[in-house]
Design goal:
By secondary structure, the chain is of the alpha+beta class. The chain is built from 1 helix and 9 strands, in the order H-E-E-E-E-E-E-E-E-E. A 5-stranded antiparallel beta sheet has the order 1-3-4-5-6, with no helix packed on it. A 4-stranded antiparallel beta sheet has the order 2-7-8-9, covered by helices on one side. The protein is rod-shaped. The relative contact order is 0.16.
Length: 169
Amino acid sequence: MTHRITNRQSGLTLIELIVAFSIFILLALAAATLYSIILKTSLQDRLVQELQRDVDAVSGHLSGHLKPAIGVASPTVCNVQNADALTVSLSGGQTRRYDISDNRIRYTDESGQSEVLLSPGTTVQDLSFFPTCTDGALAAVRVDGSLRRSSGGESADLMLDTTITTRSQ
């Protein structure tokens, strides 16, 4: 009678453990990379949405406040690009002014009250006003420029390009 001695132990060999651990590490790194990409894309999308809201708000403000303008006031000149500032005149000799200070759009109404039109975190990269006059009256104002919003090491840029036709036309 022959007895066979088998030395079987249940479990994994060292090589099997190393291979399984390596596969786990690769999968964890892939998941972390994917998560990082999704987070960055989500932040970028949020910045673009917030910037679009700012552009819409500024465009709406410009449209509402420039429509009653009848002309331009010094130092603004008609039919010439005016970088960083626009002053328009209203009936009754009152003026409204838009200017860029500290990379923000500042609006000053006819009573001298001023307000910043951009939310915190949004800055002006470039902005110019091009008032068009016909027969001495303000016909339209074209506003061109770009705005930037930054947060968490990411930034988004958006162009502002709008033309407002005044009521004097």
